[in-house]
Design a protein that fits this description.
Elements lengths: L2 H5 L2 H4 L3 E10 L9 E11 L5 E10 L10 H7 L13 H18 L4 E6 L2 H15 L6 E8 H8 L5 H7 L12 H21 L8 H7 L1
Parallel strand pairs: 1-4, 4-5
Antiparallel strand pairs: 1-2, 2-3
């Protein structure tokens, strides 16, 4: 058996977790009262040589849920007009159902046991997705209930930067500030950044791990 090739599989790389890059735009900071307005997700794959790559993208504009509170400052910040008919917005239930279906397919294809959200300052995105899932009564949420992979923390460790734009620049990833605060653009940049951090660790010799008998000799 080729042990190295086996360790290059997605289900071995992250302890059975299937990483999904997510970014959202909202009308405030309260996951229970302020609505999701936009969400994008990107699945990842690992090629035969064990390098992490971007795979499929999903992107939706979302209608504010009934009774939600929209904070004007938040709308000014992200530039979203929830009333614009050209947004083609759908309900948060429809958007999450589609994303969950794609994620569950990926979990099965990669032989993983659960998905984990990858996001920049991931607690924020995770909290809104969990709140929307509960609010809409969706079953079989594929995402871990509390674990996340936070690229802000990873970037602070690897690149000395925690702001997405600065972390990308430090990693030699182009970043266009005029497109920032769009869920689609920020998800793409976060996905590229996450892949670079994971792949950089591999290039440095940190993955695959040393066999136990070699590691014990070094220790």
């Amino acid at each position: 058996m080729d042990i190295t090739n086996n360790l290059n599989k997605m289900n071995e790389r992250f302890r059975g977790f299937y990483p999904i890059v997510i970014d959202i735009e909202t009308a405030g900071f309260n996951a229970n009262s302020n609505p999701l307005l936009e969400i994008a997700s990107i699945t990842l794959l690992m090629n035969d040589d064990g390098w992490l790559e971007l795979d499929e993208i999903l992107h939706f504009h979302i209608k504010p849920f009934a009774g939600s509170i929209l904070i004007p400052a938040a709308l000014e910040f992200n530039g979203i007009d929830p009333e614009n008919p050209l947004r083609g917005a759908i309900s948060e239930r429809e958007a999450l159902q589609t994303i969950f279906k794609k994620v569950r397919q990926g979990i099965k294809e990669h032989n993983c046991h659960r998905a984990v959200i990858v996001a920049h300052n991931a607690h924020f995105d995770h909290s809104f997705i969990m709140a929307a899932t509960e609010r809409t009564g969706l079953k079989h949420n594929p995402f871990h209930p509390f674990a996340t992979f936070d690229t802000a923390a990873l970037s602070g460790l690897v690149l000395g930067q925690t702001v997405l734009a600065k972390a990308c620049i430090a990693a030699n990833i182009p970043f266009d500030n005029t497109q920032a605060h769009s869920a689609l653009y920020d998800t793409k940049q976060t996905a590229i950044l996450f892949c670079e951090i994971v792949n950089r660790w591999k290039r440095m010799g940190g993955w695959p791990p040393l066999p136990h008998h070699i590691a014990e000799k070094i220790a």
